Amino acid sequence: MPDYPLAPAPTGVPELFSLAGRVALVTGSGQGLGFVMAAAMAECGAFVYLNGRQADVLETRRQELAGHGWKAGVAAFDVTDAAASGAAIERIAQEQGRLDILVNNAGPRLRKPIGEIDDAGIQGMLNAHVVGPFRMVKQAAEHMKKGGYGRVIMVSSPASLRGIPNDAAYTASKGAINSLTRALALEYGRHGITVNTLIPGGFRTESNRHTNHPPRGPLMRWGQPPEIAGACVFLASAASNYVTAIQLLVDGGVTAAG
Asked: Which of 82, 157, 204, 257 is the most buried (most CB within 10 A)?
């Protein structure tokens, strides 16, 4: 017989997804999937700081969340600016007394043939997608360690798993995120901090709303932005206590389809 009950008593599963009392920072959350993820965590009880470079846009978004009775703040800075990102993390920790969740979502794209990408171009991609987030994880983790709980979500792309022409700098930087996630997970696990990669596929956001053809894949459609919410909350909550160093694909099967 197994040493566990075949019909276990209620386990409090709904509570596993609660983020009540948690404090989160989501980079690149003024629009698109970043805002959807921030809103989802706020709805689950977290105090969420919205990030981007335009404070007025972030304030408008914050008011949208407040209109639902959800708690949110604004942290306007460029993720490649070491001084600004560092000051923001320290301010959040001081204001809230903690920082539990960091979602590294911000990052531009550079669609150019390899021959047209200069050193500044690829360095810019690496700074935005790898160096900046790496720096922020190190700083945020120092606050997470104090509570013995932390959730780091690194947002990557299916481009990191496939070869895509005319997208080398972006593909390389996202591939680096996947490797970095595994390394961070191994180093921070003993402190109660999990580090995972979330890989959204083709979602119908502001950046591609005018594209007519659907992504290839078994579902034969674009993802709708709210469909990223569950995966983000899972990785941010106690529901994923025993999950770290993974790549969670939310892409409608596009990557598997090749």
From this structure: 157
Query: Cα separation of 9 and 111, whole Å?
Result: 53
For domain 16-257, the CATH class is alpha beta
Q: Supply the pTM of this predicted model.
A: 0.94
Stated length of the chain: 258
Using 50, 70 and 90 to split pLDDT, how confident is the model at 1?
Answer: very low
Helix H or strand E encompassing 153: strand 150-155
Q: Closest Cα partner for 198 from 62, 41, 49?
A: 41
Q: Which of 4, 49, 149, 170 is catalytic?
A: 170
Q: What b/e sequence results for 190-226 when a residue is b if at least 16 CB atoms lie within 10 Å of its CB, and e otherwise? A: ebebbbbbbbbbbbbbeeeeeeeeebebeeeebbebe
Query: What CA–CA distance (Å, rounded) separates 19 from 35?
Result: 17
Q: Is residue 170 annotated as part of the catalytic site, yes or no?
A: yes
Write out pLDDT tens, residues 93-145. Answer: 999 999 999 999 998 999 999 999 999 999 999 999 999 999 999 999 999 99
Per-domain residue ranges for the chain?
16-257
